[in-house]
Design brief:
The complex is a heteropentamer.
Chain A lengths: L3 H21 L3 H26 L3 H31 L13
Chain D lengths: L4 H4 L3 H16 L5 H33 L3 E11 L2 E9 L1 H24 L6 H20 L3 H19 L6 H32 L4 H8 L12 H16 L8 H4 L5 H10 L4 H8 L1 H5 L2 H22 L5 H21 L3 H28 L17 H15 L5 H14 L5 H31 L17 H16 L15 H5 L1 H14 L2 H28 L1 H10 L1 H8 L4 H50 L5 H21 L13
Antiparallel strand pairs in D: 1-2
Helix pairs in contact in D: 2-3, 2-5, 3-4, 3-5, 4-5, 4-11, 4-16, 4-20, 5-6, 6-7, 6-11, 7-9, 9-12, 9-14, 11-16, 14-15, 14-19, 15-16, 15-18, 15-19, 16-17, 16-18, 16-20, 17-19, 17-20, 18-19, 18-23, 19-23, 23-24
Chain E lengths: L2 H22 L3 H21 L3 H26 L15 H21 L15 H11 L1 H22 L5
Helix pairs in contact in E: 1-2, 2-3
Classes of the chains: A mainly alpha, B mainly alpha, C mainly alpha, D mainly alpha, E mainly alpha.
Chain lengths: ~100, ~525, ~500, ~675, ~170
């Protein structure tokens, strides 16, 4: 059997990579993808815990998270399109009109 | 509801009613507005005189109390009351307000309505401060008063008015917020905001259900309160807001600021710091006295070299208020009485000085002493009034300044001769700066052509100044009318902080052993003890 | 087990808000009259708020404890409902002026309000998460509602990216909490062993990160000024009053309900509070844009509220009775703050002019001469923010001070005092501008900005509310001070 | 009807001048000079009459009751156990003072109506002058130190006003200011003295205080006991008011005032207030031998010091001013050696002849059209004969020629100094020696003044100066005072004269007790005679030297000036004391106040700190805002930072996150 | 090493490689593909954990819908190779360090704390789709209904944001 530990640690690593990606990617879409990566990491943790606890609710949570992710994706991509249209760039560092 | 009617509430809220009435009036009929404001403030003054009857001579405690529930949790009450000390401070306020209104009769030309509204709101706040017997209520009025004053400075002031107004608010808030923390802390310890109850609790021994604060706690609480008051006074080195505020404020603002607002600080020390935290007060007294003495001398010296007349008067306030603080923290009934008296006297004489400086400014639009010179020639009456007021300010006997100063020094000397001796230097220095500036402004040949044709006092100004002069004289001669009424309250404060030993005159018997001794070291030690070195 | 009627009642406000939201969306293609939507939205927000009364009358856990209808949620539902109502009133003229679609705005507003209601009433982390997302996603869209404005879209993007980023943390926190406690129900996290569970602590920490982001606690506050500045001003008003209050509500419920949470968190809140106050106030010192200044100020105020949290968490293990004043402080502060911020942003929105051009402090010079009543109202708000008496802000601050001192948090109280003074400086700057400076020539020559009836109503409501709660806070205090604030 | 009507209403005496002052001051602007005259002279005259009546009643009262008359009118200040009443008192000392003040004051008022006739600010002048009378009367009538202090400060004020009467002249207003401030320095000591007395005795009423002090044992010599310190503090006040070293500097400058003022205030009355206070407090002083010694030494030193300066002054009023300082020194010398009655006696005679000198000098100046430099006078004796005669009388009196008043009073003082018991014989001889030297110098400079002014060559331009005798209302007071300068001394005829009895000392006996008179009479007549002889010879020598130097061989005087140039210059510049004070006290104080206290401490230091905190906050704010880079990536890092921080606090905080109830955080 | 463990490691490695690749890839479309790899690997892990329904949803919704949306948008916007700017000072080495610290700490805590729940794995019977649906529609019906509104919001948002100007 695979210890739950392993799953959760994997999820932590993936979550960390997601954070890293958020910080190191410049393309807004990729950044958004890194958020998806983080959510996936969360899902993995949920499922692992659910399994470990012998409860199903963890899996239910995953479904909710996926729904939320989908909704976010719709809105987020909408915003990205808006940005891309108005600024002709997808580099997040170029979008810094608001500052200080 | 305690007996006594609602006189105090009326006193507090009547200006608000007046202000509201003014707000509803149309803003363009300036004369009408001025008259209404004057009538309101005069009526308020008359109301305040009614209080005198209610405060019997020699009676301690609060009179005309009003008590109503306001907020349940924490229990905050609308609790008002007046005693000998606050009585005259309120009257001083209500007296100076119509004077200020008259003084602004012509010099305020724009936003007239707002000006008088602010003035009346200021009166409300100040009267409220003096009459509140609930710590929370006290704090509330304390803060409420800030805004009208800031507006008075900021809107109708001179060139750097905004800087001065902001500085004034920030300084005061810095202290008062800490006081709020202190008030809350005190509430936590006692469970009430009611001043008499808190006082009673703190003075009851632990064994009898009272409360004893740990020394450190008491000291911190004392400091929290004291800082707020010291800034307001202002005590050296927290005084730098004062010159700016005064210089930039319009005449009425300066009069109220110097006349009444500064007294809120010393009033707070008498009403809160000493009775609530006697032990801490005793421990801090030495430091406070040192600051007060520094303030006296320092304020006077700095005043002496000011090229700006109004700043000079402002620094002189620092010096004068130093006497008050010293008198309070000498813990002697005479000095305490002197401090209370000095508060009132300073209100009148410095108020009058600011009025006069304002009148000069109305004519020449400058405060620079170098712009004046020889003014006694075109305006002898103004010069005469100025001299009279300057003399009262420098403490000439038979004028009001002397009584307070003398009592402060006398009382202080009884406990700490060193303090009094240093402070008495202020007596010399006040003569220096006032007479020197007077000479530079009024004496000599006229050096600026513009000054040659300046008009002397108008009828309105004459009446203002004459009123101030009469009060000055009356306070200088008939001081017992006031001291008789403040005595009991002052005494009870002293009793709370440090019960006085009954007076024992030194007798030759007690001195005999010393006389027997040769002029050796031992004799010196004894004599210095007799001198009051403690 | 299917939902019973009582469950429905207990979430009625949210359902009503959502229902009206759907209604607006459905009507959108068929009705051209914009005022109709305004009217509908007003009815919707009011109806939802009214429904919260009915929910409060049937207090108790709903859906097996997913949500809780108690005084606490009642308070917040009333609050967010009123906020939404006022935002609808204030937004009408703005949308008109900026030529923005009405229906979608109101629908999103209603959904966001529903999300906040969920957040305030949720007793279970996942439900709370859904509520949070409802309000957040609506907010993202609202922030970018002025699509032709670069700032608005940028605001939306930043809010969206960072918000989702923080949400991921929040979610991971939920996962860890779930993993360590086996449940996401706040009421079931009472077991003794959780006191020693590092995993649980870590989960809570990540939840705190997520919620800290939402309430703009430093160092998660970075997004706030940008987003507040860029978003359409009525939306900013909503942001500063609504979602923040709701996030605080959840935070409070977590740290009030979960014993293990209450216990260990004192220093974290202490640090957050101190940092947030300073970040907000110091940042605001140098701002010249009114909107941005108010944004920084709202960071500072989050800091003040966090002081009360530090007080809550320093209380004894399960001392909800003792901690009641501290909870009350949070609630009262949020109330006073919401009123003030709403009013202030409404004025900013109205004075901003088409395209929100006039946002600089200089544009406020001499306002008291041009528009005395507006200046007076703004002064009341600013004084309330400053914490001067006879305003609600004063009592709010007073209660927080009291909570802090109660918990012996003297240094924090002192820091808060220092911050109040710093804050006073920049609030005064605005007042100084309005009252003590001359208008610029063009401002003088321009006609005064019109204030439509609805906006005036908002201003009157908030001013009166601010003063009323400043003078007579009794009722609301007695309500929020009741020991059984959190129905249990 | 009370028995002693005037005593019962004693307040009338000071009140009359006050009313006069107020009437002239407030309403006088519209009155012609004549009415102003009437008000001023009338009020002082009535006051004089009232004083006379009061004195008469007092004698009756005293024979009946054998103690000073006292009456409390109202309580002025009261606090705790302190009470200062408006209480007036009359005893023999008061009688002398009241009569001198009202009498001489009245004469000078009359004189002033002539002298000031053509000056602007006429009614202002008389208003001030009457005000002065009021305060001076308060001073001498007061029954406690506090009320005395009222008069004390009040006369200082009047002096300030009158010195600065010509306020258009900077030197005048400077002098007024200087007078007031220097007096205040003395008052500082006086106040502290009062405080100490109150601390010790619990009262400041003369009668009660002295009654308590009397049984005290005297402090040992050289020992700073309470009484010694109190006395020294009071004496500081006296030094200020009576222009003693080192506070004498204001008096010569005070000559900027109109001459009647110099006569009344700065010669006859106010400046003697210090002597009066010491005499009034004699019970305290006799309990403090150290203080007595200090008084004597200061008095003697001042007498000699001022006389040396007086030797070379050119301004006629300056000479008289230094002479006044010198004579005041004599009075203190008398007090310091325990001869209070001699001091008071000299005070009285000095009031006569010094007032006369000033008035006569005023007459001269009047005649010369304002010229005060003696180098521009000379040979006036013919032109203003009556002035000359009266002034000569006064000069003889001050120089100490018998039988003029000065002889008797000065003689008594020198005798007492010779017999001084405080500090031993040697001290007494030294005091006597310097006193005698001063007498020599006095005679010299007074005759120098006379010769330079009235004799010798005419040194003014007759075309510009129209010399004329003064009007009668100026001359009449001169004559009366001249008469007094002659006969005034006879009251204290020394014992060596046939039938000579010191009536004056006897008169004051109730005040000073029997001991003093007995001591005075016990002195060997022969010694007294010898000393008197020496004094007369000394005065004669002084006068002769002046004659020789200024009339006989004027070129010698110039030669002397040349050969003794450094000394001469030093004297001419008054030992550079003013310059010294300016350099050591005034300038450093102003510099420190401006540069250090105001600009460095206040503006830069305190305000700078406050503003610096503000600027610091703004700077930090600017830093904070730079974390707001606008860059989403950075923002994300901040979130991570926050997460790490929270975790760090929860997991690694030394306090473990656990709360300790009751701990202050 | 059991077979399941081997599968776990294989999938875990795949997921990590995918995630790293997401970061390393310059072109967004490559990143998107990397993310899909991660998702598929995760789906595998879900299967390993006995959560078949979740695995299915993962593939269908995530891989099938969401990622397609991403790719679609990338195509739509014609996003090219990522522009390399380093304007942010924070998001360099310090950011890397911080993230590593954070993730390391979280992982370490988990490693130490979850031992207690290790392998209390109860397979099979409860992990049924029936159970899940029961939970969704009974226990979690309220949030479930709320998600419907959430999706409505998303739809609304997408239309508001992305619609062309009416002008």
């Amino acid at each position: 059997m695979v210890p739950t530990n392993y799953y959760v640690i994997l999820s932590a690593i993936l979550f960390g990579l997601g954070v890293l990606a958020f910080i190191f990617k410049r393309n807004i879409i990729t950044i958004f993808m890194s958020i998806e990566l983080m959510l996936n990491a969360v899902n993995l943790a949920f499922v692992a815990f659910s399994q470990a606890l012998g409860k199903l609710d963890g899996q239910v949570f995953v479904l909710f998270v996926i729904v939320v992710a989908a909704a976010e994706a719709a809105v987020g991509l909408g915003i990205i399109i808006l940005i891309a249209r108005s600024r002709q760039t997808l580099n997040v560092e170029r979008v810094d009109l608001l500052k200080l | 509801m305690l007996p006594g009617g609602h006189l105090l509430s009326v006193l507090i809220f009547f200006p608000a009613v007046g202000a509201l009435a003014l707000l509803l009036l149309r803003g363009d009929d300036h004369k009408f507005i001025r008259i209404i404001a004057l009538i309101v403030s005069l009526a308020e003054f008359l109301f305040s005189l009614l209080m005198i009857r209610a405060v019997p001579v020699g009676a301690t405690g609060y009179h005309l109390e009003e008590y109503a529930k306001w907020i349940d949790q924490p229990p905050i009450h609308y609790h008002l009351g007046v005693d000998g000390i606050s009585l005259f401070l309120v009257i001083l306020t209500t007296f100076l307000t119509p004077i200020s209104i008259l003084a602004s009769w012509q010099s305020i030309e724009h936003r007239v309505k707002e000006f008088f509204v602010m003035l009346l709101m200021l009166e409300l706040g100040v009267v409220g401060v003096f009459l509140s017997l609930d710590l929370f209520l006290f704090f509330l009025f304390w803060e409420v008063m800030l805004i009208p004053m800031a507006f008075l400075i900021g809107i109708w002031g001179h060139e750097r008015r905004v800087y001065a107004a902001v500085k004034f608010v920030l300084y005061t808030m810095a202290g008062s917020i800490l006081m709020l923390v202190g008030i809350i802390w005190l509430y936590n310890a006692t469970g009430t905001f009611d001043l008499p109850t808190v006082e009673a609790l703190l003075h009851t021994p632990l064994s009898q259900g009272g409360l004893e604060l740990a020394p450190r706690t008491e000291m911190l609480l004392f400091l929290a309160f004291f800082l707020a008051f010291a800034i307001k006074v202002p005590l050296f080195p927290l005084h730098t807001w004062l010159p700016d505020a005064h210089v930039e404020a319009p005449t009425a603002g300066s009069v109220m600021l110097a006349g009444v607002l500064l007294k809120m600080g010393t009033y707070g020390m008498i009403r809160f710091c000493l009775p609530l935290f006697p032990e801490a007060s005793r421990r801090a007294a030495g430091w406070v006295a040192v600051l007060a003495i520094i303030g006296i001398i320092y304020g006077a010296l700095v005043a002496m070299v000011q090229p700006n007349l109004k700043k000079l008067v402002a620094y002189s306030s620092v010096s004068h208020l130093g006497f008050v603080v010293l008198g309070i923290f000498a813990f002697h009934n005479i000095s305490m009485q002197g401090a209370v008296y000095q508060m009132l006297a300073h209100g009148i004489s410095t108020g009058a000085l600011f009025l006069l400086v304002g009148m000069l400014h109305d004519r020449r639009h400058t405060f620079e002493i170098s712009e004046y010179g020889g003014l006694a020639t075109p305006m002898p009456k103004l010069a005469a009034f100025f001299l009279f007021v300057a003399l009262s300010s420098l403490g000439l006997p038979m004028l009001n300044g002397f009584v307070g100063e003398y009592l402060v020094l006398l009382g202080t000397y009884q406990r700490h001769w060193g303090w009094a001796s240093w402070a008495a230097l202020g007596v010399i220095l006040s003569a220096c700066y006032l007479l020197w500036s007077y000479q530079r402004v009024f004496f000599g040949e006229i050096t600026r052509e513009k000054n040659r044709t300046l008009p002397d006092v108008s009828a309105r100004e004459k009446w203002i100044l004459a009123t101030m002069a009469i009060v000055t004289l009356w306070m200088g001669v008939g001081s017992t009318f006031i001291t008789a009424r403040t005595a009991a309250a002052a005494q009870s404060v002293i009793d709370e902080v440090e019960p006085q030993r009954p007076y024992e005159a030194a007798t030759p018997d007690s001195a005999t052993p010393q006389a027997k001794l040769d002029s050796s070291g031992a004799a010196k030690a004894i004599s210095s003890e007799r001198l009051g070195i403690r | 087990m299917l939902p019973r009627a009582i469950d429905i009642y207990r979430v009625l406000p949210e359902l009503v808000w959502c229902g009206f939201g759907v209604l607006v969306v459905l009507m959108q293609p068929f009705v051209r009259n914009r005022h109709f939507f305004t009217f509908l939205a007003l009815i919707g927000t009011l109806a939802g708020t009214a429904a919260s009364v009915s929910a409060a009358m049937r207090a108790g856990p709903g859906f097996d404890g997913l949500v809780q209808s108690d005084s606490f949620s009642f308070f917040f539902r009333l609050l967010v409902g009123t906020v939404a109502f006022l935002v609808v009133l204030a937004a009408g003229p703005y949308l008109e002026r900026e030529r923005l679609p009405f229906a979608e705005f109101y629908a999103l507003l209603l959904f966001a309000t529903a999300g906040m209601g969920v957040l305030a009433s949720a007793q279970e982390l996942l439900t709370a998460f859904i509520g949070l997302e409802m309000s957040s996603i609506s907010s993202y869209i609202l922030a970018g509602y002025r699509r032709d404005s670069l700032k608005s879209t940028e605001s939306a993007m930043k809010y969206f990216l960072l918000g989702s980023f923080a949400t991921a943390f929040f979610l991971y926190g939920i996962a860890l909490v779930y993993g360590s406690s086996g449940t996401t129900m706040l009421t079931k996290m009472g077991s003794e062993e959780l006191f020693h569970s590092k995993l649980f602590e870590l989960g809570l920490a990540l939840i705190l990160v997520g919620l800290g982001f939402k309430v703009a606690a430093a160092p998660f506050q970075v997004w706030t000024p940008d987003v507040y500045e860029g978003a359409p001003t009525p939306v900013t008003a909503l942001f500063s009053a609504g979602p923040k209050a709701a996030a605080f509500a959840l935070l409070l419920r977590i740290f009030a309900t979960v014993p293990a949470a209450t216990h260990f968190w004192f220093w974290a809140f202490w640090g957050l509070a101190a940092l947030t106050m300073f970040a907000g106030n110091l940042g605001a010192l140098v701002q010249t844009n009114v909107k941005r200044l108010l944004a920084y100020s709202s960071i500072a105020h989050a800091g003040y509220i966090l002081v009360a949290f530090a007080a809550v968490t320093s209380m004894a293990r399960d001392g909800s009775a003792e901690a009641a004043p501290a909870y009350a402080a949070v609630l009262f502060y949020l109330l006073s703050y919401a009123l003030v911020k709403l009013g202030a942003f409404t004025i900013v929105s109205q004075l901003g002019g088409t395209g929100e051009k006039n946002l600089s402090l200089d544009d406020y010079a001499g306002l008291s001469e041009r528009q005395p009543f507006v200046a007076a109202a703004l002064s009341v708000y600013l004084l309330s923010l400053l914490g001067l008496p006879v305003t609600a802000g004063f009592f709010g601050k007073f209660y927080i001070f009291k909570a802090a001192v109660n918990s012996h948090l003297l240094w924090l109280a002192v820091l808060m005092a220092v911050n109040s003074v710093i804050g006073a400086y920049y609030y005064l700057r605005v007042i100084v501008m309005m009252y003590m400076r001359e208008s610029s020539a063009e401002a003088k020559s321009a006609a005064p900005v019109g204030f439509p009836l609805t906006v005036n109503f908002v201003l009157a409501f908030t001013v009166v509310g601010t003063l009323y709660f400043g003078l007579f806070p009794n009722r609301v205090l007695n309500f929020i001070l009741q020991p059984a604030l959190f129905g249990r | 009807m009370p028995k002693y009507l005037m005593l019962e209403y004693l307040w009338i005496v000071p009140l009359l001048p006050l009313l006069g002052s107020a009437a002239n001051g407030i309403f006088g602007a519209k009155w012609p000079n004549r009415i102003v005259d009437w008000v001023a002279i009338g009020s002082t005259g009535l006051s004089f009459l009232a004083a006379l009546e009061a004195v008469r009643e007092f004698f009756d009262y005293f024979t009946e009751n054998h103690h000073p008359f006292q009456k409390a009118f109202f309580t002025w200040i009261a606090a705790g156990n302190f009470r200062a009443g408006f209480d007036l008192q009359m005893d023999q000392l008061t009688v002398v003072m009241v009569l001198v003040v009202t009498g001489v004051g009245w004469l000078i008022h009359i004189y002033a109506t002539g002298y000031m006739a053509h000056e602007g600010g006429y009614r202002r002048f008389f208003s001030y002058l009457n005000l002065f009378m009021f305060f001076m009367l308060i001073l001498v009538l007061a029954a406690n130190y506090v009320l005395l202090f009222v008069g004390w400060e009040g006369v200082g004020l009047s002096s300030y006003l009158l010195i600065g009467f010509y306020f258009l002249k900077k030197s005048a207003s400077d002098a007024g200011k200087k007078a007031f401030i220097v007096n205040r320095i003395g008052d500082f000591g006086f106040m502290l003295g009062m405080f100490l007395l109150f601390k010790t005795f619990g009262t400041l009423d003369f009668v009660a205080l002295f009654a308590k002090a009397d049984p005290w044992p005297a402090d040992a010599m050289g020992h700073l006991g309470t009484l010694t310190i109190a006395c020294l503090l009071l004496f500081t006040g006296a030094c200020g008011k009576s222009a003693q070293l080192p506070l004498y500097v204001w008096l010569p400058d005070a000559m900027e005032g109109p001459t009647p003022v110099s006569a009344l205030i700065h010669a006859a009355t106010m400046v003697t207030a210090g002597v009066y206070v010491v005499a009034r407090s004699h019970i305290l002083f006799t309990h403090a031998p150290t203080a007595m010694l200090v008084v004597a030494i200061v008095g003697c030193a001042t007498a000699f010091f001022a006389a040396t300066i007086g030797l070379v002054q050119r301004d006629i009023k300056k000479v008289l001013a230094y002479s006044t300082v010198s004579q005041l020194g004599y009075m203190f010398l008398a007090c310091g050696v325990g001869a209070f009655s001699a001091g008071i006696f000299h005070l009285m005679t000095h009031a006569f002849f010094k007032a006369l000198l000033f008035l006569a000098a005023g007459s001269v100046i009047h005649a010369m059209g304002g010229e005060q430099d003696m180098n521009h006078m000379g040979g006036l004796s013919k032109k203003i004969r009556r002035t000359y005669v009266t002034m000569l009388t006064a000069t003889l009196a001050i120089a100490g020629f018998p039988p003029f008043a000065g002889f008797f009073s000065k003689d008594a003082i020198l005798l007492s100094a010779f017999e001084n018991e405080y500090g031993g014989r040697t001290v007494g001889y030294a005091l006597y020696g310097f006193g005698l030297a001063t007498a020599l110098l006095t005679a010299f400079y007074m005759f120098r003044l006379m010769f330079l002014t009235f004799h010798g060559k005419q040194r003014y331009d007759e075309h510009h100066v129209h010399v004329h005798e003064s009007p009668d209302n100026m001359l009449a007071p001169l004559m009366i005072l001249a008469l007094l300068s002659i006969v005034g001394g006879w009251l204290a005829a020394p014992a060596f004269l046939p039938g000579g009895t010191d009536y004056f000392a006897k008169f004051l006996q109730p005040v000073y007790g029997g001991a003093e008179v007995a001591a005075a009479e016990a002195g060997a007549h022969s010694l007294e005679l010898w000393l008197a002889g020496v004094a007369v010879v000394t005065a004669f020598v002084g006068a002769m030297v002046a004659y020789w130097l200024y009339l006989k061989r004027p070129e010698k005087a110039d030669g002397l000036v040349k050969s003794l140039n450094p000394a001469y210059t030093t004297l001419l510049n008054k030992y550079y004391v003013d310059e010294l004070y300016a350099a050591v006290v005034v300038k450093p104080l102003l510099w420190i106040s401006t540069k250090v206290l105001w600009q460095a401490a206040d503006v830069a230091g305190i305000d700078g700190t406050v503003n610096g905190i503000g600027e610091g906050a703004t700077a930090i704010g600017d830093g904070v805002r730079h974390t707001q880079s606008g860059n989403t990536r950075s923002y994300a890092v901040w979130v991570v930072v926050g997460a790490i921080a929270i975790i760090a606090v929860i997991f690694f905080w030394p306090f473990g996150g656990k709360t300790v109830i009751g701990m202050v955080r | 090493m059991t077979a399941s463990l081997a599968v776990f490691f294989a999938l875990a490695a795949l997921a990590v490689i995918g995630a790293v690749s997401l970061i390393v890839q310059k072109h967004p479309i490559h990143s998107a593909l990397s993310l899909i790899v991660v998702m598929i690997a995760l789906a595998g892990l879900y299967l390993l954990l006995g959560a078949e329904f979740v695995a299915a949803v993962q593939i269908i919704v995530y891989g099938g819908a969401i990622m397609v949306l991403f790719v679609f948008v990338i195509m739509l916007l014609n996003a090219g190779v990522e522009e390399h700017t380093s304007i942010s000072k924070m998001a360099g080495a310090p950011g890397l360090l911080l993230v590593v610290a954070l993730a390391g700490f979280v992982a370490a805590t988990i490693a130490r704390s979850t031992e207690s729940v290790e392998t209390t794995l109860q397979t099979g019977e409860i992990a049924s789709t029936l159970g899940i649906s029961n939970m969704i529609f009974k226990d979690f019906v309220y949030p479930f209904e709320l998600t419907s509104f959430l999706i409505l919001v998303a739809v609304l948002g997408a239309t508001v944001l992305a619609q062309r100007e009416k002008s």
